[in-house]
Design a protein that fits this description.
34% of the residues lie in helices and 20% in strands. It is an alpha/beta fold.
């Protein structure tokens, strides 16, 4: 048994994979599917997040950072206490009172409210580790306000407003067994770093690639309880078992020969998972048919891009729309208008005899991705065999409504040249301005999967049962991840995203084009309140979308209405008071302001 298999088994034994009945939309990048109405968390994703969190903690330990561990579950008190004693971190109960971080400079105020309360150091910690994020959202808000990195366990129904503030989320069920395992990992991380660097000068605290691999192995060994005497052998096997992450920049350029380019693209098929309804945004049909800009929907944009590619290179890249029972009929009506396009469009409906499990209130959300159902649908409709007969070798599965660049010949060429069977695209969530300098960028799944068609056929015909019950990436012998540019991950999930794409920050040709006038490589952070959630409300509250070329962040809450020709710059917060209609006049320029009254403009 490989070390990865042992780790996955250990995670499963703690019930870490069992989420809630509901999976929030932003959480679905961590899900594996659903069974019996319960969200299944992908153990591979949990493992990746644990490693990222442990790497961050180890980096902070080397810099002698201060930690605050927060837990309100009495069943886990002894576990957390034993961990803090072993790693030499004192337990501080200050967090039990609201404002323990933001008001830490005025301890007398706390003593007057609770004389028995013992306050620890008034210095804020460098990291807050929260075992039960659902119970201590106030701590998360306070730490985020002070720009303190947060490591926390998150479950599938966590609200976006809380989730987005957690720097290193670990998707898992916060059962006592998993909390014990997580605390054990943190303990191992502390002890390893304290031992390896206690006699090393601070100027030499940089890990080489081999040392990083050594650290990963130590953390993985903590899962299965093996002793360090077998560490070298384990390290060798684990390094082979891990999925390598390839930088996009390191991929070879494709040939300029038009014949070779055509032959390359002719081997590709694009499959768009078209399971999401637009109900949450007030749209009755498939969400992919929602208008994005200039009368064009997401489906229009993806079809125009593939058609342009086919016309330019003389190739034939078909598009398969993988619908569900809820979206199939609506999609068939939409597809009729593309009959004259230079692109083969094949709408399919996932196996009706094996419907994908859904949560109770999932009408507004996309059906969770089930690769087994996808493979069965391709096989049972005869599509899989037909594609192979046409000489197709790879499928690009697009899980989300991603407005970023879709087909990338560099990735396809790398897969073919190196005989890669499976590839996931990852993109960095870059560090936001003002965040703690110790915080590292995180890699998130863009929802783009590349798979070899011949291997898919072998899996579905000979290993069907294993494919259904085992993480998808582990069903392929040769798998990689590619760290792609931000331009390839532009999801359109809500009206806040729609605000970005309809602004002057983007324009549309054959694909999404970012305005070169913006010097910041990051997009502005947009947060529109529930008053803007429905598409009709969003459209009526904006006479025109403001100019946001120099905007860093925008938060709008309450009964707010926007005129035309407005320019937003820096950090802008607009929150209307209850019962007050706040109108932003035409042509105004708002820069680094908090507005709650017309007099503030």
């Amino acid at each position: 048994m490989t070390i990865h298999s042992a780790v996955i088994q250990k995670l499963l034994s703690t019930n870490a994979h069992l989420g809630r009945r509901v999976a929030a939309h932003h959480f679905k990048i961590y899900t594996y599917g659903a069974r019996n109405g319960v969200t299944i968390i992908d153990s591979d994703k949990t493992l990746i997040c644990i490693r990222n969190a442990c790497h961050f903690i180890s980096n902070l330990v080397r810099q002698k950072g201060k930690f605050l561990f927060v837990n309100t579950n009495p069943l886990c008190d002894d576990i957390v206490d034993q961990m803090t004693k072993r790693i030499g971190c004192g337990a501080d109960s200050s967090w039990r009172l609201g404002g323990f971080l933001t008001n830490s400079g005025s301890p007398k105020k706390f003593r007057s409210r609770n004389k028995k309360l013992h306050l620890g150091s008034t210095q804020p910690p460098d990291c807050v580790v929260i075992m039960d994020t659902e119970r201590k959202s106030s701590v998360i808000f306070e730490a985020d306000k002070l720009q303190i990195p947060i490591v926390g366990l998150v479950n599938s129904d966590m609200p976006w407003d809380v989730y987005k503030r957690i720097t290193y989320p670990v998707p898992a069920n916060d059962s006592v067994k998993f909390v014990y395992l997580f605390c054990n990992l943190i303990t191992k991380t502390f002890l390893v770093e304290q031992k390896r660097f206690q006699e090393v000068d601070n100027k030499q605290l940089s890990l080489t690639k081999d040392e990083n691999r050594y650290f990963d192995t130590v953390v993985l060994v903590a899962f299965i309880g093996e002793e360090s005497e077998n560490l070298k052998q384990t390290m060798t096997s684990s390094s082979k078992d891990e999925t390598p992450v390839i930088p996009y920049e390191s991929l070879d350029l494709t040939s300029d020969d038009p014949v070779e380019t055509k032959q390359l693209l002719d081997k590709l098929v694009v499959i768009k998972l078209n399971s999401a309804l637009g109900t949450k945004m007030g749209f009755s049909g498939p969400r992919s048919a929602t208008e994005v800009c200039n009368g064009l929907s997401y489906l229009d944009l993806i079809i125009n891009q593939i058609e342009s590619l086919n016309s330019k290179h003389g190739c034939n890249v078909p598009l398969i729309l993988m619908n569900t029972i809820r979206t199939h009929d609506g999609t068939l009506k939409v597809v009729e208008k593309y009959s004259q396009k230079n692109i083969d469009i094949l709408p399919l409906c996932q196996n009706r005899s094996h419907p994908v499990s859904r949560g109770r209130d999932s009408e507004d959300e996309s059906v969770l991705f089930d690769h087994h159902e996808l493979f069965l649908s391709l096989k049972n409709t005869g599509t899989l065999e037909a594609l192979l007969l046409q000489g197709k070798e790879y499928i690009l599965v697009v899980k989300y409504d991603n407005l970023g660049t879709l087909i990338d010949s560099k990735i396809l060429n790398h897969l073919i040249q190196n005989r890669i069977q499976y590839c996931t695209e990852l993109s960095e969530m870059a560090q936001m301005p003002g965040k703690n300098s110790l915080e590292k960028s995180k890699l998130v799944d863009t929802g783009n999967l590349w798979m070899n068609l011949k291997v898919v056929k072998r899996l579905v015909e000979t290993d069907g049962k294993n494919v259904e019950n085992y993480p998808l990436s582990k069903s392929f012998d040769r798998a990689i991840d590619v760290n792609v540019p931000h331009s390839r991950f532009q999801p359109m999930m809500s009206t806040s995203d729609l605000f970005l794409f309809q602004s002057d920050l983007y324009s549309y040709g054959d694909s999404l084009i970012r305005n070169s006038a913006r010097t910041n490589s990051l997009n502005p952070c947009i947060e529109l309140g529930p008053e803007f959630e429905k598409l009709s409300d969003f459209q009526s509250r904006f006479k025109s979308i403001p100019s946001i070329i120099e905007l860093d962040s925008l938060k709008v809450m309450g009964d707010v209405w926007f005129g035309t020709g407005i320019t937003l710059k820096g950090k802008v917060t607009i929150i209307a008071k209850p019962g007050v209609k706040l109108e932003i006049p035409d042509g105004v320029v708002i820069e680094n302001k908090e507005i709650s009254d017309p007099s503030d403009i």
